[in-house]
Write a structure and sequence with these properties.
- The chain is 64% helix and 10% strand.
- It has a two-stranded antiparallel ribbon with strand order 1-2.
- It contains two helices and two strands, in the order ααββ.
- The chain starts with a helix and ends with a strand.
- The chain has 115 residues and is mostly helical.
Length: 115
Amino acid sequence: MARMIVGRQVAVALDKAESAIDAAVGEIARFAALLPEARQRAELSAVSGQRIFEGASETLALLAQARGRLVETHRRLEALGRAMNVTVTATGPVDKPDEDGPRQGGGVELERVSA
């Protein structure tokens, strides 16, 4: 029973982390997209703010890499859960490649896999 509780806590924390990084990616992307428009509206030369634009773009690329590492962590946690006979099932609009997961609702459910 303790493994199931811990598994659920880890799954909930992972879901929050995935949501947070997606939100950060979105915010940085919106910020980076705003910079060229802001430069033009302020009537600055194309040279103005180039390093700022590069910094925002680099930050977005680094966040994309971090998101990829988190996805890899997700997969490894799934494998560990299976090895421990504890399966955490995400519910909600979570389309995963090569999977026919739930499409409505939301949350995390635990299942105990029989040995």
